[in-house]
Specification:
single chain, 424 residues, alpha/beta, Urease, subunit C, domain 1, TIM Barrel, 2 domains, nine-stranded mixed beta sheet, eight-stranded parallel beta sheet, 13 helices, globular, binds (4S)-2,6-dioxohexahydropyrimidine-4-carboxylic acid, binds zinc ion
Length: 424
């Protein structure tokens, strides 16, 4: 047994002074002094549910030189994250039940945090989607080529997939970009101007793809989740769809909240990702949509690539940036700067992913739930430094960011897995 005493605990939307008694599960939430040997004083700290990251790429199996389940899950623990949902664009992609089961075994062996896996939708596995419904957290469709070979562009097949996934009652996570629009926009490429990368994947590419995904959701009643939303236009579409009662959720990522495409001038491919960074106007719309409730979650799209790979030009480097261990600090700093409320931070980083992906008995602090807990120090000042990070890729786009507030302890099923920035 472990007891966390004298902290303020986030329960049902409020901060309450209470003590927690933990085994693998939350045994008791009490005002009394617990009679437990292993007691941790959390005076001045805030205790929240362990964070959930609904969108990571841990690259294992296939590209473990970029990340693996050991390094990726340690990075998660460092960032206060106790559950990750991992994407299927491995090499080769997770598009068969056999590959999925193999990946489950690898993750079970190596991961120090709870995990769920997405199943990839390709052009030739539509008949097997139903088979795996009980062992996946959801399905992933790339409507456009991104990093890796997982792709489904044929409209008839996309419709078939929306219909099949609807029957599984699982969430369909969609990467919304339009291949034809991106191809035509290659005319905007200026070889020596890194930020022109963003203009080769313009806002309309995302907007048109979201329109298409929403229209299929309307027909087939699919649970749609639009990943890494970047545009003001996309926000409007999703807001309207929600008002019409469609079953749609969305997420954005810290890189879209803290960088715009002009930052690519200096950071070059270290800020290339798909979809790309946008304008200040889009960024402001994202922040508003977080507080307004149109954006349901913050994921990280943790997409590690090596320094060598990212040192190439934006035209040849693979898209994607790491982020699983920096999200909590960035968002807590944003709370301190009043860019969002503390309650909203917990909703979008813990509660809403648990609700949407039906992650049972996690995402909330409740007696009987798993003891997945993160202790936060709202006042700690620090600077993000690559040397302190656990991701194998060895860099962060947020290097040098000076922040106030961060997770200081991560507890997974009652075990302390991170303390004061050190993963145990
Ligand atoms: O930037 C990205 N990187 N976007 C994706 O869709 C995939 C990801 C990756 O796997 O590297
Ligand atoms: Zn992704």
């Amino acid at each position: 047994m472990l007891a966390l005493v004298n902290g303020k605990v986030f329960i049902k939307g409020r901060l309450i002074k209470a003590n927690l008694i933990l085994s693998k599960r939350i045994e008791k939430i009490t005002k009394e002094k617990p009679a437990v040997d292993n007691t941790i004083d959390c005076s001045g700290k805030i205790i929240i549910p362990g964070l959930i990251d609904p969108h990571v790429h841990f690259r294992d199996p296939g590209q473990t030189y970029k990340e693996d389940w050991t390094s990726g899950s340690k990075a998660a623990a460092h960032g206060g994250v106790t559950t990750v949902l991992d994407m299927p664009n491995n090499v080769p992609p997770i598009t068969t039940p056999e590959r999925l089961k193999e990946k489950i075994e690898i993750a079970k062996k190596k991961s120090i945090v709870n995990f769920g896996l997405y199943f990839g939708i390709g052009p030739s596995n539509l008949e097997t989607l139903g088979e795996v419904k009980n062992i996946v957290c959801g399905y992933k469709m790339f409507m456009c080529k991104s990093t890796g070979d997982l792709l489904l562009t044929d409209v008839k097949k996309q419709e078939h997939a929306f219909e099949t996934v609807s029957k599984t009652e699982k969430v369909l996570a969609v990467h919304a970009e339009t291949p034809e629009i991106n191809e035509a926009a290659m005319k905007n490429k200026i070889e020596d101007l890194p930020e022109s990368y963003a203009n080769t994947k313009p806002p309309e590419s995302e907007i048109k793809a979201i329109e298409k995904a929403l229209s299929m959701t309307k027909v087939y009643d699919t649970k749609l989740h639009v990943v890494h939303l970047t545009t003001a236009g996309g926000i409007e579409l999703i807001k309207n769809a929600k008002m019409q009662g469609l079953d749609v959720t969305t997420e954005t990522c810290p890189h879209y909240l803290f960088f715009t495409k002009t930052n690519m001038r200096k950071k070059k491919a270290f800020l290339s990702m798909n979809p790309p960074l946008r304008t200040k106007k889009d960024q402001a719309a994202l922040w508003s949509a977080i507080s307004a409730g149109t954006i349901d979650m913050i994921s990280t799209d943790h997409a590690p690539h090596t320094i060598e790979e990212k040192s190439q030009s934006v035209w040849t480097a693979p898209g994607g940036v790491p982020g699983v261990e920096t999200r909590a600090g960035l968002m807590i700093d944003a709370v301190n700067k009043r860019l969002l409320s503390f309650e909203r931070f917990v909703e979008i980083c813990c509660e809403n992913p648990a609700k949407r992906f039906d992650i049972k008995e996690r995402g909330f602090i409740e007696a009987g739930f798993f003891a997945d807990i993160t202790v936060v120090d709202m006042k700690k000042h620090y600077t993000i430094k690559t040397d302190n990070l656990y991701t194998k890729c060895g860099w962060s786009p947020f290097e040098g960011f000076k922040l106030k507030g961060c997770p200081v302890m991560t507890i997974s099923e009652g075990k302390i897995i991170m303390e004061d920035g050190v993963v145990l």
